[in-house]
Amino acid sequence: MDDSLERLVAAEQDERRRLALFLHDGPVQNLSGIALMIDAALHSMENGNIEDARSVLSSALDRQRATIRDLRNLSFGLEPVVLRDRGFGPAIHELALQLGTSYKFRVDLDIEAAEGIGQSAQIALYTIMRELLDQSVRRGPPSRVRIEITRQPDGGVEASVADDAEPERRRRSMEAIEERVKQLHGAIRFEASPGKGTRVVVTLPPYATRR
User: Tell me: the pLDDT tens digits for 57-115?
Assistant: First the structure.
């Protein structure tokens, strides 16, 4: 196994591990807690404590709604239907809205240039942008993110994600993104400084954007 393939496999394993931990520590724990809260509410009702039961059920409902939101966000990130049905721009807008609303940060978008690239390149670019946004959230979350996509004079594409969260210090966390960029024969660079955030720039050659 060559070094690049080994890094990609390791990065994919890290991603699966991250998803497993997210499901176990988030939705699974929340659903277990909701079940206990419902049991407590039923016990209160059986003993005539209707107000106590109502309060517990109200809290359980809030937790259930939060769990549904987390699972919906995960589902959208893994297979965004809007990307398939409506294209890159609406998919990025929806992703930015979901993350910005959930984690309370502002997202500025300048992505019209992406509409002219091929479908496969759009899917790959969306995946890269999503992973970079996930990185921003894990490092922060940030208070502001800017996503910008521009066409280059040679017909290629430059895409960047800039945030004001603390810079990433773990090399492994970026390897999956680097491998995806390499699969498109593109280039990636990181611009980070403490207190000023991080800007990641991905450049794709002209032939990669026509796929």
Answer: 999 999 998 888 788 767 666 656 777 777 888 889 988 988 898 889 999 999 998 87
Give me the DSSP letters along 117-145: S-HHHHHHHHHHHHHHHHHHHHH---SEE
Maximum alpha-carbon separation in the chain: 75
Is-contact 102 69, C-beta < 8 A?
A: yes
* Residue 209, token pair as written in the block: 């954007």
The answer to whether 34 and 4 have CB atoms below 8 angstroms apart is no
Cβ–Cβ under 8 Å, residues 140 and 168: no
**What is the layout of strands, in order, in the sheet containing 106-110?**
106-110, 144-151, 157-163, 197-204, 187-193
